[in-house]
Structures are given as C-alpha cells and as structure tokens.
C-alpha cells in the first residue's frame, strides 16, 4: 500500500492532471493502441484512429475513474467496485493488459509533468496504478 508521502505526491499531482484530464486519458489510449495493437481487440466497436471521438470520450472516462480512485485513495476497492465487476465478469479483460495501460498512463503523466516526475513520483504512480489494476482484476482470483 502507499506511504503517506506517496499519497501526498498522488494527491498534489492530481490537482494538475485533472485540469488536463481528457487530453491525458486520450493520449494514454493512443499510446496503448499504437504500442500494443493487440489491445485493440477489446474495442472492435470503436473508431481507434488518433483523435477519434471514441478515444476522447473513453479517455475521459478512464481518467475520471482514476480520479474516483484518487478521491478514495484509502479505499480504492470500494470506489471501483462496479468497474471491477465490469472488467472482470463482463469484459473479461486479460490482466496483462492492465500492465500495458498502466505503463501508458505513467508515460503520459511523465511527459506532461516532467518537473514533477521525480523517481519518488514514479514509484508512487507505479504503485497507485498497480493498486487500481489489482482492484479491476481481482474478481478473477
Ligand atoms: C470500459 C476504466 C483498463 C477495456 C471502461 C469504463 C471505464 C474504464 C471508466 C467505462 C465504464 C462505463 O461506461 O460504465 C478503466 C480503468 C482501467 C481500465 C481505470 C485501468 C487503469 C482497461 C483495459 C482494457 C479495458 C486494460 C482492455 C485492454 C475496456 C472496455 C470497455 C471499458 C472494452 C467498454 C468500452 C465501451 O464499450 O464503452 N473502462 N479501464 N479497460 N474498458 Fe476499461
């Protein structure tokens, strides 16, 4: 779990991220589908070309869900229960894909906020995104 210092990093960076939430979500998805095209198979019903409306709407949803997790940083599982059921039972997303999306989110945050992205911030985001990914996949176990 996150240390107090790591929570502080996530919460303070989130204030900045939330002002560019949609752009960050969209960029992370563009990176996911470009670098790891196999992930596109989960979205056969989407237009996945860079800048598409589907990417922008979905990117905004993903970042909004991360914002819910940030707001409930001590109870991420409670905050994301419905999303966990969706990904685990209905969508049946293979957990490896969460590592790929987490990596793309990490790179996107780093490239938007290079001055904030110290080694400690890197660690905090890596841990936070692992917690979110565990919550969204834990119904498999
Ligand atoms: C839907 C968040 C990881 C595939 C969603 C929705 C959210 C979300 C908020 C919309 C739910 C709704 O409309 O009620 C997240 C978060 C993730 C994550 C926070 C991890 C950080 C993934 C991964 C995949 C995936 C790794 C597969 C590569 C999907 C699909 C949908 C969906 C296929 C349904 C899209 C649609 O038809 O509208 N996700 N997701 N998700 N997610 Fe995820």
Count of alpha and pi helical runs: 7
Please state the overall shape, judged from the principal axes of the Cα atoms.
Answer: globular
Order of helices and strands: HHHHHHH
Main sheet, how many strands, which sense, barrel? Answer: none
Mean pLDDT: 95
Radius of gyration: 14 Å
Provide the helix percentage: over 70%
- In oligomeric terms, what are we looking at? single chain
Number of strands: 0
Unreliable stretches (pLDDT < 50, length at least 5) are none
Distance from first to last alpha carbon: 19 Å
Ligands, deduplicated: protoporphyrin IX containing FE
- Class per helix and strand makeup: mainly alpha
Question: How much beta, percentage-wise?
Answer: under 5%
Short description:
The protein is mainly alpha-helical and 141 residues long. Helices cover 70% and strands 0% of the residues.
Sequence-ordered SSE layout with sheet pairings:
Blueprint: H1 4-17, H2 21-35, H3 53-71, H4 76-79, H5 81-91, H6 96-112, H7 119-137
Helix pairs in contact: 1-7, 2-3, 2-6, 6-7
Bound molecules: protoporphyrin IX containing FE.
Descriptive overview:
- The protein has seven helices and no strands.
- With 141 residues, the chain is mostly helical.
- α1 crosses α7 (119-137), α2 packs across α3 and α6 packs antiparallel against α7 (119-137).
- Bound molecules: protoporphyrin IX containing FE (HEM).
- Residues 39, 42-43, 61-62, 65-66, 83, 86-87, 91, 93, 97-98, 101, 132-133, 136 line the site of protoporphyrin IX containing FE.
